[in-house]
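Worked problem 6 (solution included).
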Amino acid sequence: MTDALTSPTPGSPVQFEVSTNVPTTHGTFEMRAYRDLVTGAEHVAIIGRTPDGSVPADGALVRVHSECLTGEAFGSLKCECGPQLDAALDTIAAEGGVVVYLRGQEGRGIGLVNKLKAYRLQEDGLDTLDANLALGLPADSREYGGAAGILSDLGIGRVRLLSNNPEKRRQLEEHGITVDALVPLVVGISAQNAGYLDTKRDRMGHTLPADLEAPAHN
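Solution. The predicted structure is:
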């Protein structure tokens, strides 16, 4: 994997912009920034080298993660996004792999303000899916062509996808990325997001356990 020029690869939905090394609380990663030529969003590939020092290649462990300001920056307990991102970064720091961080996908693509509007409707008893629909919005409007373009730029055509969401698998494969397996990522369960996770499992097809329980605290 080598740095590309900032001119996009013909036919690619993304344009590579810059690569730099960033030390974090999870480890030091190579971060490669991309501009989405379809949406204009700025995405980041966060790359952890394997224990032998090599860069991830075909068959790498990959997390495709949607930006979640409320869960990642504010520590919201209404979702598990913050713990999922932390766990994914810890995993690729230890084992090698890539987290493709997709910006512009807040609230499964509806944006921050609409996400908070949906939260307000959930206070009245709607689940996360019906709240979106009540606002006249899709249950999930995310699209993963940009993620597939980033993986292709990295020279990765086959992945082990760190996700509970079969729709991510379907879309990546539709865009030419082979997904060898879904690797479960069941973290961040709390009393506050139990209904949210039940809806993901029962109405959106996520591969989550039937007996989701928050961990006990001593």
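Discussion: The longest helix spans residues 81-95.
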